[in-house]
Amino acid sequence: MSSGTGDGTSTLSGRGAGTAVVVGAGVGGLATAIGLRRAGWTVTVLERRAALERYGTAFGIHPTAQTALDRLGLGDALRVRTVPYRNARIRRPDGKVLAALPLERIERRWGRPELLMSRPHLIDALLAELDRLGGTRIEYARPLTDPGALVADLVVGADGINSAVRTAYFGTRSSPRPIGTVAWIGIAGFETGLYGETWGEGRFFGMTPVEPGRTNWYATVPAATRARELREAFTGWHDPIPRVLAETDPATWVRYEMRHLYPALRAFAADGRVALVGDAAHAMTPNLGQGACTALLDAEALTRAVAAAGPDGLPGALDAYDAERRRSAQRVAFGSRTLHRFMTARRPALRDALLRMLPG
Ligand SMILES: Cc1cc2nc3c(=O)[nH]c(=O)nc-3n(C[C@H](O)[C@H](O)[C@H](O)COP(=O)(O)OP(=O)(O)OC[C@H]3O[C@@H](n4cnc5c(N)ncnc54)[C@H](O)[C@@H]3O)c2cc1C
What are the pLDDT digits (tens) for 193-223? Predict the structure, then answer.
């Protein structure tokens, strides 16, 4: 493994660099590895899977996460493989429009649109950038089993909702909690031309663009719903929802149990050398479309603080990271959980009346 900056890696600070182990090669781990490499750190990534999972759901990339990607040097990749998300509505199962998703408001506020990018493309872009920077070793089929044995200046837990790093350094007070629903997700091989979310009683269905000729969809239903019951759960809902389910192969659907981390962690950093990013730190329900975005924001903030301080200033850098990200990420997680309750309301009439009062 190479180290230092002789391979063309740009340094964000001139204060020297150390060694880091990043556990987990998801969005958060790969983005953290990129930020550390750009600061000249020697990075090893440990990934428990033999290869990275390549399922095809689309991530919404909020403008703030786009800025984080720009700062990590991934702005170009972002622009090539994304589509803007606009003109999406919240509907009732009979098709009546209740409100607009706030996409145009987001675009006005931040000066650029929310973008959609398929998860495989984002993972590929992160891997390509790591490869271009050189000097990072990704060890696949390497589940971390003994966090205490890790020898490095910095240990980053980017190992998702069941984080072994979190359990080892932060205890089990905060742990994954099911919320009673599952999400089935998939890609339809045609463009529906109609996007947004349809909210029913205890369930909802969403459709977004993802790339030409395809539609990204997700269906949230009570946890006991099996794949063969999904089509039935949306029978009678407005076009093209039944068609999306009928024309996609259930073998390609991906099932997620909806869970979040509860209660919220008291710190994102420990021992002056350990930090958590992404789902390991604040796993949230997907309702606000912020899981990957917040992982990117964490990675950028952590590596910016570490680059500015250098290895000698690591404890202070981790405190600064905690101060910048913890409350903000936990507010988003709380908002997402609250929105989940609202979206899956058992008596939707009041909810729908409230929705109709929202500005368009
Ligand atoms: C239906 C649905 C829709 C979503 N839509 C969006 C969206 O539109 N926008 C958005 O921003 N987010 C969305 N999300 C959330 C998003 O998928 C995740 O929150 C985000 O990918 C978190 O990234 P991460 O790197 O922290 O964790 P993960 O992606 O879980 O990565 C963790 C990695 O660590 C590895 N690992 C785990 N344990 C170990 C171990 N012991 N040793 C070594 N490696 C280990 C895993 O194999 C994995 O590769 C959605 C989620 C769902 C369920």
Answer: 999 999 999 999 999 999 888 999 999 999 9
Q: Is the pLDDT of residue 15 over 60?
A: no
Best mutation site among 61, 121, 279 for ligand 1 pocket (most ligand atoms within 8 Å of CB):
279
- Give the DSSP letter string of 120-137: HHHHHHHHHHHHHH--EE
pLDDT band at 93 (very low <50, low <70, confident <90, very high): very high
Provide the domain count of the chain. Answer: 1
Summary mean pLDDT of the chain = 91
Query: Cβ(160) to ligand 1 under 6 A?
Result: yes
Q: Does 105 fall in a domain?
A: no
pLDDT, tens digit, 9 for 90 and up, residues 100-134: 999 999 999 999 999 999 899 999 999 999 999 99
Distance between Cα 287 and ligand 1 center (Å): 14
Please state, in angstroms and as integers, the Cα–Cα distance from residue 25 to each residue in 44, 93, 269, following that order: 10, 38, 19
In a domain, 216, yes or no: no
**Cβ–Cβ contacts within 10 Å for residue 318, how many?**
24
The DSSP call for residue 9 is P
CB 185 near ligand 1, within 6 Å: yes
> By residue range, what is the domain housing residue 140?
19-83+119-177+259-343
Residue 74 lies in a domain: yes
What CATH number is attached to the domain comprising 125? Answer: 3.50.50.60
Which numbered atom of ligand 1 lies nearest the CA of 142? 43
In a domain, 233, yes or no: no
* C-alpha of residue 279 to centroid of ligand 1, in Å: 6
Q: Which atom of ligand 1 is nearest to the CA of 291?
A: 19
